[in-house]
Design goal:
6-stranded mixed β-sheet, alpha+beta, binds flavin-adenine dinucleotide, 12 helices, 22 strands, FAD/NAD(P)-binding domain, globular
């Protein structure tokens, strides 16, 4: 009988299982329950930053040589009416079709001997004194622990009344370039102009490696496709307004939509205030929360799951159903500190004075130098907090700052 039910077989659920196994948890102690049948569609830009590529490589080393339904970019580009700069990481970024990536990660879990029950929707989770009951169509089942890896709209957090963080709204579709327009296929473009229209977020253009036979492992992808979308990092705009913004953006950028509809899905952001544990239950991945600045979710999901697996193993060894300082302990880890850094930036850029902070971002000389250096990684800048603050203060003291104009919607 499995002792631990992992609800959700996305990157967080798979990473949790694989890390738990590495720590010595027996495969027969784990079961993954997912309402979907894999490979399942997942609305996502499918971009892994360099750190994400390393995290996936650590989990499933053979994904790299055998995997060709993906492509690489060499850099990110941040653009706005106040400037434009490239972000060069320590290595390339990978782009995936998410159905394909998640299927490969879950296959590694199955290959490691863990039971995976697909098409199994969890309806509710009820923590009790000695066990936690999981309710599915098949009836109630008791586990020592339940791991909520069920994403932005997860049932686990709701069932156990864990309060939610900020929920953003995203829309996205597949586009192709208009004849004569040649976008850079080696670039992930982030355009912060939605902020000028009162939408606290950014629009993106990512190359998309669409598998020719969706759902099947394939080495073939359809060339020349892109995903365009918009993230409203505070969930303040209506879905229809975001769809219209995306189509207008695509037209300006020289793209034609090939998807019939522009689909939407929420994102749930991490904050130092979100809670993720009650006795017998922990949250991981987006169920707990992801990067509130760019909505990067895959790398944080894997990082949180690595931490969660370690803490749960300690609790199993101690025969305990509580994990003191589960949230606080994560905040002290490097990924936790970096998420806190991303949260601070998001609070500024998507907060009360976004134009001022947009201006700081695009004129901050030390930040621009770090972005260009190729020695850093997106999502790992927390260690530079004080040098960044002091260098900007010095920049303003010695040269003043550009007046923030009253930017109008274009
Ligand atoms: C439009 C859009 C674009 C994005 N682009 C990027 C990007 O380019 N790069 C990036 O890093 N991140 C991106 N993200 C975020 C990223 O997709 C998520 O943060 C990431 O998938 C989180 O992984 P997870 O495993 O925590 O959750 P998920 O991937 O959502 O997996 C949760 C799993 O739980 C299952 N589940 C849910 N409820 C139940 C239930 N009741 N019972 C059983 N199973 C259940 C689901 O079927 C699913 O398989 C994007 C998100 C959106 C919406």
């Amino acid at each position: 009988m499995p002792r631990i039910a992992i609800v959700g077989g996305g990157p967080a659920g798979s990473a949790f299982a694989l890390h738990a196994l590495k720590l010595g948890v027996d495969p027969s102690d784990l079961v993954v329950l997912d309402r979907a049948r894999f490979p399942r569609p997942k609305l996502c830009g499918g971009a892994l930053t360099w750190r994400g590529t390393e995290l996936v490589r650590e989990l499933v080393p053979d994904l790299v040589p055998h995997e060709s339904a993906r492509m690489q970019t060499t850099h990110l580009r941040f653009r706005s009416a106040r400037g434009d700069f490239e972000v060069r990481e320590r290595g390339p970024q990978w782009l995936y079709d998410r159905a394909h990536l998640d299927d490969r990660l879950l296959a590694a879990v199955i290959e490691a001997g863990v039971e995976v029950r697909q098409s199994t929707a969890v309806k509710a989770v009820e923590p009790g004194v000695g066990s936690t009951v999981v309710r599915t169509k098949a009836g109630p089942e008791s586990f020592e622990w339940v791991v909520g890896a069920d994403g932005a709209r997860g049932v686990v957090a709701r069932s156990v009344n864990l309060p939610r963080g900020i929920v953003g709204r995203l829309v996205e579709a597949i586009y192709e370039p208009e004849p004569g327009h040649e976008p850079d296929p080696a670039e992930l473009l982030f355009d912060f102009d939605p902020i000028l229209d009162g939408i606290p977020g950014y629009a993106w253009v990512f190359p998309y490696p669409k598998p020719t036979a969706t759902g099947e492992p394939t080495t073939e992808t359809t060339p020349g496709l892109y995903k365009l979308g918009i993230m409203d990092g505070r969930g303040v705009a209506e879905g229809q307004a975001l769809r219209e913004w995306t189509d207008a953006f695509a037209e300006r950028e020289g793209f034609r939509r090939i998807d019939e509809k522009i689909a939407g899905w929420p994102e749930h952001y991490w904050s130092h205030r979100t809670r993720a544990h009650v006795p017998g239950v922990i949250l991981t991945g987006e169920a707990w929360g992801i990067d509130p600045l760019l909505g990067e979710g895959i790398a944080p999901a894997i990082e949180i799951s690595r931490y969660a697996a370690g803490r749960l193993k300690e609790a199993l060894d101690a025969g305990s159903r509580t994990i003191p300082t589960y949230e606080k302990g994560f905040r002290k880890t490097v990924p936790g500190k970096n998420l806190r850094f991303q949260q601070r930036l998001a609070d500024l850029l998507y907060g009360k004075n976004p134009l001022r902070w947009l201006d700081v971002l695009f004129s901050h000389r030390r930040m621009l130098a770090l972005a260009a250096a190729g020695t850093e990684a997106y999502g790992q800048l927390e260690k530079h907090t004080w040098p960044l603050i002091w260098s900007y203060v010095w920049q303003v003291l010695t040269g003043g700052h550009r007046p923030t104009p009253r930017l109008q919607a274009g």
